[in-house]
Amino acid sequence: MYESLLKNTAEYQKISASLAAPGPAALFGLPPAGRALLYAALQKDLGRVLCIVTPGEAEATHFADDLKALGLTAAVFPPRDFMLRPVEGAGREYEYRRLSVLGALAGGRLNAVCVPAEALLQYTVPRDEFLRNTLTLKPGMVYNREALVERLFSAGYVRRSQVDGPGQFSVRGDIVDIYAPDMRQPARIEYWDDEIDSLASFDLLTQRRDGALEKIYLSPAREVLFGSTADTAEALRAAQKKARGKHRTALEKAMEADLSQLDSGLMPEAMDKYYGLRYPAPATLLDHLDSPLFVLDEVGGIRDAQKATEFRRSEELTGLLEEGVLCPGLDVLYQTMDDLVIAAQKQSTLLCENFLRGMNEFQLKALINAEAFAAPNWGGDMASLREDLDPLIAQEYAVTLFAGTPKGAAALTRDLADKGYAVSMSRDVRPAKGLVQVLPGHLTAGCTFPFARMAVISSRRHGLDEASAEAKKRKKNKNALSSLSDIKPGDYVVHQSHGIGMYAGIQRLEVQGAIKDYLKIQYSGSDVLYVPVTQLDLLSRYTAPGDEEKVKLAKLGGTEWQRTRAKVKKATEEMAQELIELYARRRQAQGYAFPPDGDWQNDFETRFEYDETDDQLHATAEIKQDMEKPYPMDR
Q: What number is the average pLDDT over the span 471-475?
């Protein structure tokens, strides 16, 4: 409803007309929540992908959440730290997130991408290279297994004995397991000779098959792709031969360790520094978009954030150049604010600010003012909601109200109807003066649009948001640390790869020319491991019972930790067998079967103000089923 009211205003029509041709127009007066509503309306109206550039990742995440609630498929394209030299325990989570977004764009699965300015100006894999290294597989398809393995190596995947994270694959006889960056769950391919016999997802923890898949889409697992180790070594040596004088000497020094690894058949981890050699025509996220609706949201904030980012990068690159890790030609990694201004002139661009402020670097083709006001979120109390609604209805505003869960929206619709309001739950309802449209979902905030005679109000979000719920669902270790406040010096921790150690506090170290914080983990003897604070999730609290004074620290580089894990796995399997026998005996016992839910229980659940996660709803349903059975519940 709000979209049709917006589209009929002169302000909206000016904005839409400005996006018909390249060049920037400036929009003032809308708060962030109002801009999200406008962006969603523009995307649905014009049918072009939105690219919303923000000062930071928090703002990008808020826009993505709001756009999803408004019916768009949206994702955040985050910035990442380039891996310019080997770092112990370095993770690639942010690189995988970026590749996942590129894959969704290539497959036409996104209406909007929200990107911090820093991430937009970081170079990424060119579009043609990305598409050449993508592959769709289906059951019944003939695709040689050895050719698939070679293709995965070329696309940046790492071979493991067992897949335990994105960017990996494993081969066991006629079975190939693959975890692409944009997969929710890894996929299992079963071969019959050279024919793909079946495709299925599988659980990362149990390694057991889940549901069958009709097809899988394999996207690259790295943003810098060289192919095989032999091809990579050849490309690096070719670059050395082309260089002359001091530049050649500097290149040889920077490449020496990596060439040694390549010659031994290993792909170095820190290949990002060769981006400029691999891709003479560098690319950004914008190169993966065709005629997007290009939005710079809070231009002043973007300018300030990028100024700080460019200063930090300059300091880091200067240190790496002086150290010899990089040399001229190996520092081609980023664009600047000037490049962003040029991009804004070439694209159909909207520059947005709350208030009128200077944009001297842009050649503006239009200035548009659309005054609106942020509306506070509704907390769930009917009296306070009526205090917000009644003045709007009296002014003959149409109101769209986001009420949280679908069952909450249904309950609120009934309550408002009982109070005498004209109310509808239809998404396609015709706009009318004084009409209240109730929809499921949440927005960051609401907004009142006087020029459109309409308002949008949102309930306050309760419980986990979608991103947090998904992260929780995919989390492999319930004891994994999420905050530095979870541990203190002297606590025992467990590293996924290296075993039990003692946390010895935070230490600042200079790495890649920049001073960063690391967690110092003390192991057996004088062994010490430094874990970046950004990879805190690699550590778990030590929770085994007993006297902590007798805890034995692991030794770095040894095999004791792997043996310990094998023993635990065997003991777990034995315990599982005992539990199966125990549950079989309990099933024979008699219990009390409770009746199904009645009207009171259903009404209570309908009005429950918090948003349950999928896991909570699933657990509740299972418990009810157990309580209705004639034998004792075992949970």
A: 46
